[in-house]
Each structure stands twice: as C-alpha cells, then as structure tokens.
Amino acid sequence: MIDLYFWPTPNGHKITIFLEEAGLDYRFEPVNISKGDQFKPEFLAFSPNNRMPAIIDNAPADGGEPVTVFESGAILVYLAEKTGKFLPTDLRGRKTVLEWLFWQVGGLGPMAGQNHHFVQYAPERIPYAMERYVKETGRLYGVMDKRLADNEFLGGSELSIADMASYPWIVPHQRQQQDLDSFPNLKRWFNAIKERPAVVRAYEKGQAVNPSGTPTVNDESKKILFGQSADTVKR
C-alpha cells in the first residue's frame, strides 16, 4: 500500500496517473496546500521542501521499514523501479526517458508555473514577465511537438514516466495562453493520453480529494502559497 500525500495540482496528478496505470494500491493523505497543510511538522519530517506530492511505501522491495520519497520526479523513478514499469531497463531507452523526465521537472513545470503566477496570480501585471513566461512555455510546447513528430510518446514507442510527468502540465494549456492547434503532434499525444482509462480514473479520484472544488489559489491562500522565505523554513 502506498500512502500518497496529495492535492489535485499538476504535480500531484503525475503520481495518480502512475499509480492508476500500474494498478498499485494506494490511499490519499490530503495535503491542502491552500490551508498550509504542507507546513505541518509530521509532513515536513519526510517532505522537507514543504511541497507535495510525497509518498510512503509501506511495502518496499527490500522488505524493510517503510520508505518515504518526496519530489514528483524522484517518486516516479522510485515507483517505476519498484514495479518494473514505464521506465525501460536497456541503457538507451532508460537514458531517453530520464532525459525527458528531467526536461519536464527542470523546464516545462517551472516555466509553466511562472506563467501561471505572472499571468493569473501576481498582484501587479508585469508585461515583461508575462510575455517572458508565455513565450518560454510556447517554446517548450514546440520542443515537445518536434519530439512527438516521429515518436508516439516522449520516450519513444511506449508510454513512460516522462509522459506522466508532462501531461498534467499541458492540461491547463488555455490558462498558459497556448493553442494546441499550433502544435499538432503534441495535440495528438495529449488527446491520446487524456482518453486512457487510467488517466480518467486518476483525475476523477484526484479531484474527489477536493470535493468542494475550492480553488487552490484564492485571495486568502496567496498569503500562504506566495509568501514563503528562508524564515519560513527556519520555523
């Protein structure tokens, strides 16, 4: 059984997609980031960056004590190695999937996140910042589109953790001011993943964690989500 510390955000959905695709048993441990659950001492004890998702694997492969993992990319690699799924074992296949996984965690996620912040949430509209991150998001979409011109999935011919990491960050493409019609290969890939039964289940179960549908970012939660500093960590 996997304990998944989760809130329905793009990074959280990465893990539910894997768990549903792999058929692993898991249970949600909601971390309402808009209320500050990510700062609770019991959560920080194994997720020191005060970010979700994080997991506790209660049945690790070595048969020892439960294993904790934080950071979505690390969780995906851990689960892929645990199950032997969605990460090739051959040298070149593994290398390619990890390249695209790290491309997402180091590029697509952070740049799209800054896009969201400056376009949707910043208290003042800064045209330079908005243009900078909308354009960079578009550039990254272009990189994906080019890759997918000759490959069914980011890692090649089979679904991998690279696709699971990237898909949730394309879901809010309209908020990112991106038109999928401008990226036909990406659009084909996006629609194919969207229709996978495991992905449908992942989003349905994930959204049920927040049944009221309360937005993660609102006027009150901005003070928590966007007001952190070194002093926050030292508390």
TrEMBL record:
<dbReference type="InterPro" id="IPR010987">
    <property type="entry name" value="Glutathione-S-Trfase_C-like"/>
</dbReference>
<dbReference type="InterPro" id="IPR040079">
    <property type="entry name" value="Glutathione_S-Trfase"/>
</dbReference>
<keyword id="KW-0614">Plasmid</keyword>
<feature type="domain" description="GST C-terminal">
    <location>
        <begin position="90"/>
        <end position="212"/>
    </location>
</feature>
<protein>
    <submittedName>
        <fullName>Glutathione transferase</fullName>
        <ecNumber>2.5.1.18</ecNumber>
    </submittedName>
</protein>
<keyword id="KW-0808">Transferase</keyword>
<dbReference type="InterPro" id="IPR004046">
    <property type="entry name" value="GST_C"/>
</dbReference>
<dbReference type="Pfam" id="PF02798">
    <property type="entry name" value="GST_N"/>
</dbReference>
<dbReference type="Pfam" id="PF00043">
    <property type="entry name" value="GST_C"/>
</dbReference>
<dbReference type="GO" id="GO:0004364">
    <property type="term" value="F:glutathione transferase activity"/>
</dbReference>
<comment type="similarity">
    <text>Belongs to the GST superfamily.</text>
</comment>
<dbReference type="InterPro" id="IPR004045">
    <property type="entry name" value="Glutathione_S-Trfase_N"/>
</dbReference>
<dbReference type="InterPro" id="IPR036282">
    <property type="entry name" value="Glutathione-S-Trfase_C_sf"/>
</dbReference>
<feature type="domain" description="GST N-terminal">
    <location>
        <begin position="1"/>
        <end position="87"/>
    </location>
</feature>
<dbReference type="InterPro" id="IPR036249">
    <property type="entry name" value="Thioredoxin-like_sf"/>
</dbReference>
